[in-house]
Design a protein that fits this description.
Blueprint: E1 3-13, E2 18-24, E3 27-32, E4 37-42, E5 47-52, E6 69-75, E7 78-83, E8 92-97, E9 103-107, H1 109-118, E10 128-133, E11 137-142, E12 152-157, E13 163-167, E14 172-173, E15 176-177, E16 179-186, E17 189-198, E18 207-217, E19 223-230, E20 235-243, E21 247-254, E22 262-271
Antiparallel strand pairs: 1-22, 2-3, 3-4, 4-5, 6-7, 7-8, 8-9, 10-11, 11-12, 12-13, 14-15, 16-17, 17-18, 18-19, 20-21, 21-22
């Protein structure tokens, strides 16, 4: 990464606490960690649409009741939304079929329990913030901001049902280690976001010391580059926007930990 530029791209009214996004053609799909709607924003028409995911979908849910959708990922023309797993109410996965518009909700508490047990995590220490799916594996990016500070990647093999965990060490700010907040794959390279937050809780927020962008190898989990992109913001969503020979552009969303229904989308340009 030779040069990095971060700038405000658009401001979207009607959605707050943005936690994940996927860009497809002229559409930006967004999730919020305190909402059970999927949001679709048309960049050309500048219009926001809400897609009801559950029978009683709501916005601005109290912290104790929210599904905490932190991960939004695209695979085989389907969008997958994953709860963080940090409480029992956050063990839900929702699948949205882009073609048929069919919505399926699934309880993944058994899978999350196996993931916790594989690393001897307490119930409140699992904190899945990013998910990548390929033909063979699910990659769950664990934000290690709990008591044990287990930051890394769970690899769940679809065929043998095995679970493997690889610790990933990231930079520190004010003695606080950066931990994963999202990840996507571009060709054979993973790009991830991480944030420094002064807390040892997956539930309670803390003071923000900044965010990072980095890249790693999805098979070996070797980290290539990590660069700080902000000193006071917590970026939680990352999607590919445009790719050229020597330049790659991402869109980012920020969780500002407020109840206001407005979200700023940022553009991050990297010269490689």
């Amino acid at each position: 990464m030779k040069k990095i530029q971060l700038q405000t791209y658009i401001e979207i009214l009607g959605i707050g606490a943005a936690s994940g996004l996927v860009f497809i053609k002229d559409l930006l799909f967004i999730i919020s960690d305190n909402s059970t709607f999927l949001y679709k924003y048309n960049l050309n028409e500048k219009q926001l649409h809400k897609i009801k995911l559950l029978e009683n979908s709501q916005e601005n849910l109290p912290k104790k009741d929210k599904a905490d959708f932190e991960s939004l990922t695209l695979f085989n023309n389907k969008l997958y939304l994953y709860g963080s797993g940090s409480t029992k109410k956050r063990d839900t996965r929702v699948k949205f079929n882009m073609e048929t518009k069919e919505i399926k909700e699934k309880d993944i508490s058994k899978l999350y329990k196996k993931i916790r047990q594989s690393l001897s995590l307490n119930d409140d220490e699992l904190n899945i913030e990013g998910v990548i799916i390929d033909k063979e594996n699910f990659y769950f990016f664990q934000r290690g901001n709990g008591i044990q500070s287990k930051n890394g990647i769970f690899t769940y093999n679809k065929i043998n049902k095995t679970i493997d965990f690889k610790t990933v060490i990231l930079p520190k700010v004010n003695e606080t280690e950066a931990t994963f907040t999202d990840a996507i794959i571009v060709k054979d390279k993973v790009y991830f976001l991480a944030a420094c937050e002064n807390t040892t809780s997956t539930y309670n927020d803390g003071e923000i010391y900044g965010s990072f962008i980095g890249s790693l190898n999805v098979k070996t989990k070797k980290v290539y580059n990590v660069h700080q992109i902000s000193e006071n913001q917590k970026f939680e969503g990352l999607t590919l926007f445009n790719e050229k020979d020597s330049q790659i552009e991402f869109l980012l969303c920020e969780d500002n930990d407020t109840e206001g229904l407005v979200s700023t989308i940022y553009k991050l340009t990297i010269t490689i």
